[in-house]
Structures are given as C-alpha cells and as structure tokens.
C-alpha cells in the first residue's frame, strides 16, 4: 500500500503495517490532534497523530537505510531490524489521550493498567502516562494477537516493540544482536533519542500546518551523514562532523517551535482552562484503563462532553471564550515581580490565573545518561558525545521558564491599566 503525504511524498506501507494501521487502535488516532488546542491559534493545525505516526515511520526508514548502508549487516537481518523499528515508530503514539498531553493529568493510576514488572524501571510516577497506555495496548489488548500473527514470522514480538519505545529491557531477548554487536541502542535512538524519527517528522509537519517557518531544517543532509558506531560491543547512532552545524540548526528549530508554537499563549490558555475544568468537575470525563473502553476516548468524545457540560470552564472552552493575556515574561525580563502582580490582581478583585511553561533543549541530555547520539570523525573513527561537541547544550542547559498571567475578558482593560500604573508605564486610554 502507498500513502500520499504532503510532507514526505509517497509513503510505502507493508502488509504487516497495513494490518496495524487498519486496527481500531490505530484508527483512533484519526481523532486525536497532534497539537491539541493548537488550531485555536493556528487554524491550519488540524493534523492528527495518525498522519504524524505514518510520517515518522517513513523517516525512521530513511534513517535506518542510511545508517545500515554503512554497515555489514546481511539483508535478512536488516529487513528484520527495519520492520521492528518501523513498527515501534508507527505505534509510539497509540496511547496519547484526548487533546494530547493536556489530559494526562486525569489519567488513571498506573497500577490499574497492570503492566508487566519489567516496565517498572521506566515508570515516571504513580499516574499513567501516554507511554504506559501505549505499552498496555501493545502488550495486553486485542491488538496484541494481531501483531503476533503478522510480525511473529519475522521474529518480532510486541515486547520488542515496547522495549524500543520505552527503553525498558524485555524479559526475553528481542534479537537485536548480530555478529557479537548489540544494535539495540542504535534502534532505540531512531525511535526515541536526540535525533529521532518522531522529532524529525513533527518539526516539519507542525511547521507546515501552522504556517510557521521555525521548524524547518536540513533533513536530507542530516540523514545522509548518519552512521553506525560500535563502542564496547554496542552499536550507536553517530553523526558525521560535517553535519554538526545542521544538527545545531535542528536543535534551534525545535527550541524556537516550543516558544512560538507549542507554548503559544492561546494554547497554554486553553490547556490551563481544561485543567481547571478537570479540577472542578471530577469524573465528568475520565480516561479509562481498559483498552477496549480507551478506543472511545478521543478528542471527539472530550469535545462532546465539554459542549454538554454546565461547568464554566467547559463552556468557555467550547465557545472559545478564553481568558485574556495580561502579561508574559521570562527570567531574562526585568521589571516584573510575579508576586506583586498577583497581589495587585487579588486586591483589585480581578479573576485571573498564572501559568508557567518550562522547556528544555533536550530531555535526553542529563548527567549519567547514556548518549543517544555521537559525533564521529569518519577519518579516525573518534567518537564524541554530542552534548560535549556542540556548545548549544551549555548555552541552553537550563529550562526556559515562560510565565503568563491571564485575566477574565471583561476585566482585561482595567487590569492593563492597573499593571501599567504598577510598572510606571503610560496608562491606556
């Protein structure tokens, strides 16, 4: 099967992949938008996690083919490794909840999913995450036998796919070793790492559908400069020095997309109102732990609930009557004192809320973590961790904190005048 895509052109789909795509669990992603409330700020951003996952799978193939083209893996091993990576990337977003990350705050307790103990090592807390749900759907739902039937002949198990998605080590050997070299780190890096297929697709796709240019980068040059690098018996993803500047551009593209798109004040505003809806109307909308019930938990179901709700926040969301942005600033801005501003708003009787958005250049760069990407000098084979090679990690090592104050719409002009007087600026007439 072939699929036409506005970002990558023609995407080839195998028979095994078509079986997964045709499943109810994958088709559910047609009704989960990639950017949540993003279309309220960028009307074109109505693309879904369904099409993003297809695009990411295509990118994963491009990366895998470029890397293994510089290896001595035999064709049959390449075919199996490629199928495993493509399956993992295709399924990596299956567990996303309605309006994407905004609904994870009402996810059930992780224990209710009854995940196998080997996944406990990568648990992020007591509350289930979208990765926990993805693991549940792959390991313990009606999708599981479908994967076993289609991928079993290739020697690929649902556990192997979950291992690549989560980074956890399955109890059974997933079979990603050849000639004494473990290829798991490299395959995992393609699925989830510093330069993974997920990021490489969503930056281009989100940039295209929002009409924002910041997400563009030179994917062709990056992919053509990727290599396998064996260190201590394990294969890692390595980028030639010639493409280091292109990687820095990729990092900055992601950073700028966070500031301009993912943390846009409108999206953040409605995320905050959705959080207040969940707090004030507990149980009105829930994320079920049962896989079959989860099939019906998508954006459509949540919007239906919001439109029928009597809750004030639900009504504001459903009618796009958000609070108005009063002020926004980062730690680099001077002259703003959040406590003073909030105190003045309380004293003046202004209904308001505060949101602090935090973003880091990379979640994969941390002391003691195993690097997911190296820079390689192809003339000598010398490897350098990418975080040590590029100065961008040091420059942007701290989290970017973007603080915003929102006020009820009918109070915004009075609030602006109050803030102007407080900051010693000219009062609006």
UniProtKB/TrEMBL annotation:
Name used for this protein in its record: Deoxyguanosinetriphosphate triphosphohydrolase
Record keywords: Hydrolase
Alphabetical list of InterPro entries matching this protein: dGTPase-like, HD/PDEase_dom, HD_assoc_2
Domain HD/PDEase: 45-212
PANTHER family associated with the record: DEOXYNUCLEOSIDE TRIPHOSPHATE TRIPHOSPHOHYDROLASE, DEOXYNUCLEOSIDE TRIPHOSPHATE TRIPHOSPHOHYDROLASE SAMHD1
Gene Ontology molecular function terms on file: dGTPase activity
Origin superkingdom: Bacteria
GO annotation, biological process: dGTP catabolic process
